[in-house]
Amino acid sequence: MGNACCAGGIAQLFRGQAQHSEGRRQGSVLPTSGALVQLSGHEPSSAACLLESYDISVELLGSGSFGVIRRATCRWTGSARALKTVDKGQLPDFALEDLAKELRIQGDCLHPNIVRIYGSFEDEEQFHIALEACEGGDVRDFMFAQKVLCESAVGFVMWQVLTAVQYLHEVKHVAHRDLKLENLLLAFGHVPLEDNLVKITDFGMATTFEPGVRNLSMICGTAEYLAPEVPLGRYDEKCDLWSCGAILFELLSGRLPFDAGSQEETMLMARVCPVPLDRVSASKEAKAVLRSLCQKDPRSRASAEQALQSAWLGQYRPDAGGPAAEESGGRHVEDRPVPSEAVASKGPCGEAACGPAAEAGQAAVLQRLAVAGSGATDYADADSASPAVSSDSGWEALSCSGRSGSFSSPRESVREPA
């Protein structure tokens, strides 16, 4: 598990002295722009843009080996954000490359059921990533707090998850490769599951793929959710649908289909043992979807589109009512222009599509990350470029959900070189 940063270590993350005439902004733990490094090639620097765009709270949402998460507020809209701050000095070169790839993939995804990245910034010692804040924690915690989930609540969750997976696979040609309950966040706190908005997070294992080709080879993911073909080192995006099946199994029954004493035993059971559908008490329609997702042969496994067309999931399409319906509108979301928070409020920098200067700053951060790593610029080909690393030991240990404390997952992700 990743180590939690101590308070003293966190205080040392920012060393500059504020030189701006306004001094430190109230409620901010960062110095103003005079103490930050201006990136070459454009003005303003992405670090200065961060300070113009956000009020950053002293409130600590989480910590990991390589950085912390703080609550931030967009100055132009008042919207809450989760600001991940990653210490450059603590990151090995391969982790910098992984972070660049993760930012590139997740930042390109615009879907109501995927945690959005609003910007990436840099100062002398840290990278800062502004993400959508999710106030309801993760679905696993919600499930254990409720103890029992009704089938309709499960249906609403799965409809949203599979809609996002369909978008990733069909629009973006991205395989997530680490779908699990801990990586499903709830947008709203104290809102019933049927009315909430589920968002996929943690794209640390994600990669792009070529449709119709089984050319993924890295053994990665979380053993209890890992498709049987992944440990064999030749698979495609259908691995995500098996993970969706494991999620559905867990939501309906309260336990995982395969969970042995070790990761190796769990992965072996998934390959050689039948899926124990008799453990699940659910309607025959729900079981039919579960069975279609838990096919061991990926060629027989349902796609996200096929699962969404089932009679069971069709009834949970959010056509009206509730926060989830208001944001997604029951539509399949393609890429579309996203309103700029800065433009809407005439802010100087803002988030996401906030103008050429900010876009150049974000591009510079990605370029620096790539150069600091292996120098790879083709992220689609970086599938197996990194050495083995446990996902909860660094960047991936930092979650953007609104929980306090260390954010290590109880079910650790695995990652091995191809």
Automatic annotation (TrEMBL):
The active site is at D178 (proton acceptor). There is a cross-link at K180 (Glycyl lysine isopeptide (Lys-Gly) (interchain with G-Cter in SUMO2)). Keywords: ATP-binding, Kinase, Nucleotide-binding, Serine/threonine-protein kinase, Transferase. Residues 376-411 have a biased composition (Low complexity). Gene3D superfamilies: Transferase(Phosphotransferase) domain 1. Residues 328-338 have a biased composition (Basic and acidic residues). It holds the Pfam family Pkinase. It comes from the Eukaryota. Signal peptide: none annotated. One of its GO terms (molecular function) is ATP binding. Residues 315-349, 376-418 are annotated as: Disordered. Residues 55-313 form the Protein kinase domain. ATP binds at K84, E182, N183, D202. The keyword Kinase applies. Belongs to the protein kinase superfamily. This is Protein kinase domain-containing protein. It comes from Alexandrium monilatum.
